[in-house]
Specification:
Heat Shock Protein 90, 68% helix
Length: 393
């Protein structure tokens, strides 16, 4: 509504100026009363009122007005307002129409100059061509340049909004990934210790014939796992708070497999560790993934029975193979599982491009085995891992 008011105000000003020019005899005398020249002027000014809402109608009114003015005048005021009709049609009308309008006005300018030259001399050709070009071509060209700048600004704004939207999506994805990683880390750190605490507490409560020495030993193990779990929780919180990437000193390593096995031994589970090959430096992501997978596999063995567990860590060319195996149906205390451990192990293996197999194994499927193959370099593909695991290498 504000745009219509501004357009009406501009049309009123243009009409007043045009009337002043007519009164000042800024027109060709054709023997008609001066008020007749006001009619085409009013029509062109009516086109100014609708220049934004109906640019093609504005141009149509301007063409009609200039045609009438050509027979009764022409007058300078009407011609000047007609240039605004052209400008509005090229700026606010369809883009294809604006390009066509430029071609039409250019041809009219050339044709007008040629007719004037044919009727007069070459000087008339030059003067008329320049005048017609100024009246017809210049407004359309100016509108096309302005239109191109406007469309470019709109495209840049849309592109900036898309970039901002993509940045926000990336930020949300990063937050979700970090939450998933933190949940996985906390689960892997705490589950082992508190599973041992729960199993030992359950065993102590279910036995009525324990001597004080055995009870003390169980309580010492419970205390050790509690303190260890709290210490790892504090270390995790410290890593989240600190700035930078200097986490090497506190990063769990696959080389600490003996510590993990010793911890489940203290929890009352018979565990045997065998390290094959020469221990080697592995990428940090593989080191952490191997440690957490081994920790989770031992936790599951501790949860789901008291059968002895065999752990094998084999360092081979370009890969590390870990096997954790124990018999099913042990007589130890059992705890329910939520299945998050296996999901976490698969996620860790997938992140480093390795291979994981977890399930029943052996004759009559009487044993449970977790087999993880992790790459130590980029030279071996997941397909090679799968074929190597299937062949038992």
């Amino acid at each position: 509504m504000g745009g219509m008011k501004r357009a009406a105000l501009w049309a009123g000003v243009a009409f007043a100026v045009g009337v002043v020019l007519i009164a000042g005899r800024a027109h060709l005398e054709r023997g008609v009363p001066a008020w007749v020249l006001v009619v085409p002027l009013a029509i062109t000014c009516a086109g100014v009122v609708v220049r934004q809402r109906a640019p093609l109608l504005s141009l149509g009114l301007g063409v009609v007005a200039v045609t009438i003015d050509g027979f009764v005048g022409p007058s300078l005021g009407t011609v000047l307002v007609f240039t605004d009709n052209l400008y509005a049609a090229a700026l606010y009308g369809p883009a294809r129409f604006a390009r066509v309008l430029l071609g039409v006005t250019a041809m009219l300018a050339v044709a007008g100059g040629a007719v004037a030259g044919f009727l007069g001399d070459w000087r008339m050709l030059a003067v008329t061509g320049v005048q017609v070009g100024l009246v017809l071509v210049t407004p359309v060209t100016t509108a096309l340049v302005l239109r191109e700048q406007r469309d470019r600004a709109v495209a840049e704004r849309v592109r900036a909004e898309q970039v901002a939207r993509l940045a926000e999506l990336d930020r949300q994805a990063a937050i979700a990934a970090e939450r998933t990683r933190m949940a996985r880390e906390l689960h892997d750190m705490i589950a082992n210790h508190f599973s041992a605490i729960a199993i030992q507490s359950t065993a102590a409560l279910s036995r009525k014939d324990l001597d004080p020495g055995t009870v003390r030993k169980v309580m010492e193990s419970v205390r050790e796992n509690s303190v260890k779990g709290l210490a790892e929780m504090r270390a995790m919180i410290g890593l989240l708070r600190q700035e930078g990437d200097d986490t090497e000193a506190t990063r769990p390593r696959l080389a600490d497999a003996e510590t993990l096995v010793e911890r489940v031994r203290r929890a009352g589970l018979v565990a045997r560790l065998k390290v094959e090959g020469e221990p080697q430096e592995v990428p940090a992501s593989v080191d952490l993934a191997g440690y957490r997978i081994l920790q989770e596999a031992l936790t599951n063995a501790l949860k789901h029975g008291g059968s002895p567990v065999d752990v094998v860590v084999s360092y081979e060319a370009r890969r590390v193979v870990m096997t954790v195996e124990n018999a099913l149906g042990g007589s130890g205390a059992r705890l329910p599982g939520a299945g998050a451990g296996l999901i976490g192990m698969r996620e860790r293996v997938s992140l480093v491009g390795g291979y994981l197999e977890a399930g029943r194994h052996g004759p009559r499927e009487a044993r449970w085995r977790v087999l993880a193959v992790l790459p130590t370099s980029d030279g071996q593909s997941a397909a090679e891992f799968m074929s190597a695991a299937a062949s038992g290498e």
